[in-house]
Amino acid sequence: MPSTLDLTDVPYGLLVGELQRRLECATKPERRVVLLGPPGCGKGTQSPALKRDFCLCHLATGDMLRAAVGAGTPNGLRAKAAMESGALVTDDIVIGIIEEATKKPECRNGFILDGFPRNVTQAQALDQMLASKGVAIDKVLNFEVPDSLLVERVTGRLVHPASGRSYHEKFAPPKVSMTDDVTGEPLIRRKDDNADTLKARLSTFHSQTAPVIDYYKKQGALVNIKADNPFDKVKTAIFGALNK
């Protein structure tokens, strides 16, 4: 006989709030959103609000890959074998992992895809996978930030490893230094969040990912977001784009 979840100790206000949230989510339209932009552009900072207010799941490819490997899914096992052999994880494996993730209940209203596609070939493969299900990408938000402003953003970034929540020691600091606001767990600095690594990543972004912007622009799905504005102004622009 299946076990039941004991909610005795859960505060009444939290239960009512969660019920209200689920009722509101049931009325939300489906949306499938891709976030594009260079490292440090603010995608990770804005994603929690998008996830919450539009009732979408947040699919960060790195997190999904690690989760699939840890869960031992068919595509996770393929990815693990590739990584252990020193090979790259192929696009079809990543597409498979994305497809697996979109079947989860929390993705019933759609998703925010962050970190993929990185090139036009991947964008085409993603479109084909979604088309086989009778759906498509609705909006592609292109976070525009001048390269000159990204160094300070990236070198000051702090991350909660378990959830992917990101902070910035200057622009969006946690309430308690080096501590996640939600869980109270320690924050970390990623090893590659330094100026030298950023320059290499920006070079890769401009050469490989920038053509993806043109690909989605031709489809009429692209919306440019001036992401060097203050957080609330960027959020307003994003919400305006998704509510059209």
β-sheet strand percentage? 5-15%
Distance between the termini: 47 Å
**Biggest β-sheet: strands ordered side by side in the sheet:** 2-3-1-4-7
Radius of gyration: 19 Å
Biggest beta sheet attributes: 5 strands, parallel
Question: What is the H/E order?
Answer: HEHEHHHEHEHEEHEH
Gross geometry? globular
Secondary structure category? alpha/beta
Number of helices: 9
CATH superfamily of the largest domain: P-loop containing nucleotide triphosphate hydrolases
CATH architecture of the largest domain, by name, is: 3-Layer(aba) Sandwich
Give the % helix: 40-55%
- CATH fold label of the largest domain: Rossmann fold
Number of domains: 2
Tally the beta strands: 7
Mean pLDDT: 88
* Poorly predicted sequence stretches spanning 5 or more consecutive residues: none
- Which CATH class of the largest domain is shown? Alpha Beta
Would you summarize the structure shown here?
Keywords: Kinase, Nucleotide-binding, Transferase. This protein has nine helices and seven strands, in the order H-E-H-E-H-H-H-E-H-E-H-E-E-H-E-H. It is about 50% helix and about 15% strand.
